[in-house]
Amino acid sequence: MQGDADMRPGTGPIGLDFDNTIICYDSVLANLGIEYGFLPSGFTEAKIAVRNAVRALEDGERKWQRLQAAAYGQQIDRATPFPGFWDFLALCHERAMPLVVISHKTRYAAADPGGVDLRQAALGWMRHQGLFDNGRSPLTEDQVHFADSRTEKVGMVRRLGCRCFVDDLEEVFNDPDYPRDVPAVLFTGGAPAPAGPWRGVGHWREVADAVIGR
Ligand SMILES: [Mg+2]
Fold first, then answer.
1. Residue 23 Cα, ligand 1 centroid: separation in angstroms?
2. To pair with 148 at 20 to 30 A between CA atoms, which of 2, 33, 120, 172?
3. What is the pLDDT of residue 37?
């Protein structure tokens, strides 16, 4: 880890992505894949391995879309926050650090048009997990924002004055409209971070070190 001097934290909120940054779909995707008969029983690997295995099946892309639609919608309550996320929230609560969540998420899945409202499902998950329980979390529902496109998302990062932004997708930070003066934190969930104009972190403990310090 580098020191955190280069993060040049401002005074705005810490910005967080939602899917695959706060919420981990690994086990729900693997378990649904087994239930749908797409994966062998006992399959416990992470999202990328599930995706690769399901896409390799006949009509694999459609099967993968169906799996994702279920995990992000109807079955979202089987997903869990990434390890260490609650410790990060508790630290933000203790330090009175403001947070915003900015998620690029369409209202409905392409594989399930007119089905479950994915934004309401995400808000419901946050509520059920206690993320809006202000006795232990600084997050409020009106600090959760949804964007229809990546361009709109990076525009929100700028407009909301984020002091830094945490996201699992390199594309967000490589977007030509991403505000270069907002330090980027690429969350990998434990995988090695590729090189780029960001700080790579594998665990929420490292996010806390990078954006708050000790
Ligand atoms: Mg994401």
1. 9
2. 33
3. 96
Those residues whose beta carbon sits under 5 angstroms from the ion ligand 1 are 17, 19-21, 168
Say how many residues make up the chain. 214
Mind listing the pLDDT tens digit for each residue in 71-84?
A: 999 999 999 999 99
* Per-residue model confidence as pLDDT tens digits over 83-131: 999 999 999 999 999 999 999 998 998 877 778 999 999 999 999 999 9
For residues 115 and 73, the answer to whether their CB atoms sit within 8 Å is yes
CA 19 to CA 178: how far, in whole Å?
A: 19
CA–centroid distance, residue 167 to ligand 1 (Å): 6
